[in-house]
Amino acid sequence: MNSLLLFLFSLQKVDGEQVFLDYNKPWIFLKNYFSSPSEFLFYLKGLEESDFINFKPQPQIHDSDYSGYFQIIHKGLNQVVELSKVEINSKTCFMAFDNRTKPYRKAIKNAISKTGYKVIIIDEEHINSDKTIPDAILSGIKQSKFCVADFTLHRNGVYFESGYALGLGKSVIYTCHKDDFSDSHFDIKQLQHIIYNTPEDLERMLVDKIEAWIK
Question: pTM of the entire structure?
Answer without folding.
Answer: 0.58
